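Suppose a colleague, Dr. K., hands you the sequence of a protein chain of 388 amino acids and asks what its three-dimensional shape might be. Before reaching for any lab equipment, you can write down a predicted structure in C-alpha cell form. Begin with the sequence itself:
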Amino acid sequence: MMIRKIATVLLIFAFTSTIAQESVGIPRYLQNPMDSITKQNFNKTLETFFSEMEQGKLSEELLTPQRADLTKSQLQELMNYESKKDSSAKKIQDKQLINIYPISINKYLITISYTYQNPETNPILLYNINLVATELNDKFTFSVPLDYLTRYWKTETVGNITYHFRDQINKERAKVFDSKNIKIAEKLGLKPEKLDFYMTDNFQEVSKLLGFGYSLYSNGKYRDGYGVDSKTIFAVMNNEDFSHDMFHYYSEQINKRENRNWITEEGIAYARGNAYYTDKNGEMVTNNRLVNELKDYLTKNPNTNLFAIFSTNEKIFTNIAPEISVRSVISGIIAEKIEKEKGKEGISKLINAGSQDRLESYLKATNELIGINKENFNSKVQKLIKEE
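The predicted structure, expressed as C-alpha cells, is then:
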C-alpha cells in the first residue's frame, strides 16, 4: 500500500514537473490539422519561441521577416509581463495554445491564452494572443496578424502616407495630415518619413489587428489610436489625421527621453498637430479651436486662476472631448511665444527642460526664456491668450 502511494506521488510530481518545464501548454483536446512531422516541428518551435520570451529575448529567426519589427514591439508587453514574475509564479504554467487552424498553404492562425492562477480566487484571463505561424523549409516563424486581417482592405497613397481602409478615406483630412507630417519633421530638422496608416474604428480594433484578441489591461479602452510603431499608424476613431503623435515621434529621434519635458511636448503637439482625440462628430480638434474655447471660457469666468487650472490640468473642455487638456493648450501658446522670440534654440531648451519634477522644470525654463514663472503666470499668460 505504501509503495503504491509513493508511486502515485512520484507520478504526480513527474507530471507537474513536466508541465512546469514547458513554457506553453498544448492540451490533448486541441485539434491541430498538421501532419505528425509538421506538428512536431511546430510544437518544438512554439516552445522555443515562448521560452525565449520568458527569458526576455527573442531571436530574429523566429520572427516572420515582413513584420519582424512590429511583432517584436508588440511582444514586448508579454516579455515585460514575464520579467515581473516572482520565482513561484515562474513555476506555474500560465500559457496554453487554445486554437490553431490553416489560413493558407503554409500559414496558420494560432491563439495563446495567458491565465493568472490564484489559489484564492478563480483563474483570471490576462491575454488572448493571436499570431500567424508561417512554415518555411520545415521551420516556423511568427507574426502579428495585421496583414491577414486586412487582406481585403483597399490602399491609397496621399503624399508620404499610404492609407489602408475598408471602404473610403476622407481625402481632405489625409492631405492635411500629409502636410502636417512634412512641416513637423522639417521644423525639427528631419526628413519626413513615409508611413503606413490603418483606418481603425477604435482601440479595440487596433489591438486585434496587432494580435491582442483580449487584454485584461486594456479591456474597454476604445478612444485611442496607436503609433508610430515601425513606421505604422493606427487611426484615432477612424480619423485620417494623426499629427499630434507625429511631433512626439520626430522629437524622440533628436531628444533624449530623460530630458524631454512632457508639459512642453504635449503643448507643441497640440499647437503643431491637434488634440489627438476626436470630438463628438469624429473630427480632430484643432489648436485654434481650443484657443478660442479658452478665450470664451475666461470671458465667462473672469476670476479664473490660470496657474491653478494649468498646474492641476483641470478639465474645462468636456463639451468637446473629455480627455482634452487645458494645460496643453496653454503650454502650446507659451511655446509659440518662445519660438517667435528665441527661435529653434529656445524651443529646444523648452523641450529639454527635463522629465523629473516636470512642472518645476518647465517653469524654470519658461522663466529663463521669456520671464514666465509661478508668481507672474496669471498676468503674463492672460496677455498671451488675448494676443492669440
